[in-house]
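Complex 395.
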Amino acid sequence: MESHDAIVIGGGVIGVSIAYHLARLGCRDVLLLERGQLGGGTTAQSSCIVRTHYSVPENVALARRCLAVFRDFAGYLEDPEADSGFTRCGLLIVAGEGPRADALRETLAVARAQGVDARAITHDEARRILPLLQLDDIAAVGWEPESGYADAYLTLTAFARNARRLGAVLREGVAVTGLVRDANGRVAGVATEQGPIAAGTVISAQNIWSREVAAWTGIDLPLTLSRHAVFTLEGPTPYARGLPVLKDLASPGKLYMRGYGGRQLLVGDGNEGETIAAPDTVQADVPLDYVAEIGEQVAHRLPAFAEAGLAASWTGVYDVTPDWNPVLGPLPGVAGLHVAYGFSGHGFKLSPVVGRLLAQSALGLPTDVPLAPYALERFAAGRLLAGRYGTGAVS
Ligand SMILES: Cc1cc2nc3c(=O)[nH]c(=O)nc-3n(C[C@H](O)[C@H](O)[C@H](O)COP(=O)(O)OP(=O)(O)OC[C@H]3O[C@@H](n4cnc5c(N)ncnc54)[C@H](O)[C@@H]3O)c2cc1C
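Predicted structure with flavin-adenine dinucleotide bound:
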């Protein structure tokens, strides 16, 4: 039977980063199995915003390490051709008077406590950064100058190329259909449509398909699937790549916006999304009523976009856990099996460090930061990673 030291299930940005880091940490016999094409899952739908604005301190610890990687991607991968497409344009966060403004100020302080450049700024300073801003209903403005956005395709392909350079095998078109266990219940490999493959370590990075792991093991993995719409607007003014990322906590949709392709504005909403029963990356309709409703909110904050037209739209699905934070590490009760799922719409930016942490944990090495807060057991124990904004992708 074909045999490897470690098998990664899933070739999204998380799985590919795990494979790369396993190889980098010395595990030279790594096999990644992807049912479709590398990056063809939810990674392809990502808005790719890279920020450290989190109120859960553990998330800041991950995000600030990731930001350092995105800023020096080629150096980190020791590959002069590696480019994550990272645009350091800064992140502006605005909130109206009340609990969200309080949460914003407290969240900036959480990041500052870990050495992140995250500050409250005046309205005048905010207008200097983004002259298009309408701030009449805004009480608090936060600014993270180091943040920005990257490119999912470039990031994933750089991890994949370097995983292969270090000896990992990344195989497309192979669906994992089950786990192989030994007499003691320990993981001994995976079952695939093309036969079993042996490995003492298996890491699932299956995102919205992670319920398959629950079916294979009988272990409940809390997960809801939430579909979100994203669209781009093109206005009379072409915006350069320097347009900062904007998070509008004062808008009903808690919108996020960023530059797209040099001329357009990408817009997504921060609400719960549409719950769907089964994992599916097929594109759903983005109703024009929705675009009009969200477009009005955009025009309220950025009046220059009042006349903008719809350029493109798509949908994407989040793998949401009860506290909107991921589950990372060994799965209790099944020795040799590890999971990384539940990124709840904010996993792209975490991919460099999550890959390294999962590789460290799977290889029995000390982890750079404790994984215990992200353990599956936290849900049953009531130790949720709850943030100051309540549940949501900015937790
Ligand atoms: C609309 C949208 C906007 C987002 N915006 C942001 C953002 O601005 N910033 C941010 O940080 N994050 C964002 N995210 C989240 C981020 O994109 C995801 O968390 C991240 O891409 C998930 O990567 P992944 O590798 O876990 O999942 P995926 O890319 O979905 O990869 C999972 C892979 O596993 C494969 N697979 C599953 N089961 C099997 C099996 N049995 N056998 C073989 N292969 C299997 C699938 O085919 C798939 O390719 C956004 C997500 C969406 C949907």
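The chain has two domains: 3-48+152-220+323-381, 89-146+224-320.
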